[in-house]
Amino acid sequence: MFYFCGMSLQPLLDRLFARTTAGIKPGLERTEHLLDVVGNPHHHLPAIHVAGTNGKGSTCSMLASVFMAAGYKTGLYTSPHLRRFNERMRINSADIDDDTLATLAAPLLEEAERIGGTFFEITTVMALQWFAANRVDVAIIETGLGGRLDATNVISPLASVITSIDFDHMEYLGTTLDAIAGEKAGIIKPGVPAIVAEPRTQLRGVFEKRAALVGAPLQFVDDAMRVEVDTFHPDLSMTVSVLSDDRLDYVTTDLCGEHQARNVAAVMATIPVIADAYDITADHVRHGLMHVRRNTGQRGRIQLLRSQPPIVLDVAHNPAGLAMLVTTLRRCGYPDGSWQVIFGAFADKDVPAMLHALKPAVGTLYACASDSDRATPSNHLASMALEAGIRAVVDEGTPRAAMLEALSMHAPILICGSFSIADEVLKVLDQSA
């Protein structure tokens, strides 16, 4: 329970989460209205805007960590959260505090309820208002869904960054990669430099067309540098090689995976673009990338929670993300088929494809479902897992039951498939520490 000014914050949070029932409403008009109500704080907010299917949250955290290493007061807005709503907005290493959260939420909720504003629209305005009030030197802003009609697309950033593109949220973004890329490209704005980390040449035309239409300088990361994993480490960190302008450097980061190498490249390609506004050196980049989790509180991206036996948490929630998880674990020295896998997924995801991607890692799969209305029932997950060819499947019902059973096996544990199961699983870990 949270309190502010002697009153419980919980009713405000309940009202805020109730706005999720308004669904996803593409469009900027409600966000712009709410911003106008609070004085348009975003108009003078220096920001970097990040969109993409996979990697945008990690890229945001990397960028924020680099800015912090350079001594800048840095705002970071990401979603969703793992444990507490406050995690969604941070300044330097601190989540927004409860009193400030309540002060920002109360008037916005009243107006949003009147106009039909959504949860994410309210949250976005709160973050922009908080960052502006605290005069951050830079705000790193992650899109929620898509880009063109995402609530965050009200800002006028210093740079627009687009990470990798894949199939996700197809009911809103389109059923082809070109269509999805087009929605992500919607964050490219007139005169604002755009950095694109998506590697597939067949999608280049989508970004080139948008950049030409609005007159934005465009930089494809692969044209600027080559970043490859040099060494995977058992603690799920890695060292990458960076080849740029015939210069070879090595950088270690506490995030791991081939996809994270591409995110590192996106960050390193972005820094020169904003060099006129910020003094960021190679040492700042090196130290920032080495301490992303510590600096930003980033959690749940192929994260080693315990080492003996290993317990790993990953919140990837589409087939491409889970395939990368399996590959990364293998390359860090963990054998296939060795994991007690706690798996839950939302019903609007391609769950069969997710299970096929996950299959090589599975020793035993514990199917579970969070209390979200969007969660796939655990018995359905168990059936789909068997159909995917996973031999050992247990329907555990809840994430808590699944975690307790997995812990009793004293074997490597992998928690994955959804943000929604992480909180319940982490509570069990907290209690068993």
Helical content band: 25-40%
The termini sit apart by 23 Å
Give the CA-based shape: globular
CATH class of the largest domain: Alpha Beta
Radius of gyration equals: 21 Å
Q: Which residue ranges are poorly predicted, with pLDDT under 50 across at least 5 consecutive positions?
A: 1-7
Total beta-strand segments: 19
| CATH fold descriptor of the largest domain | UDP-N-acetylmuramoyl-L-alanine:D-glutamate ligase
Count of the separate structural domains:
2
Main beta-sheet annotation = 8 strands, mixed
Q: How much of the sequence is in beta strands?
A: 15-25%
Tell me the number of helical segments per DSSP (H or I, 4 or more residues long): 17
- Give the CATH H-level superfamily of the largest domain: Mur-like, catalytic domain
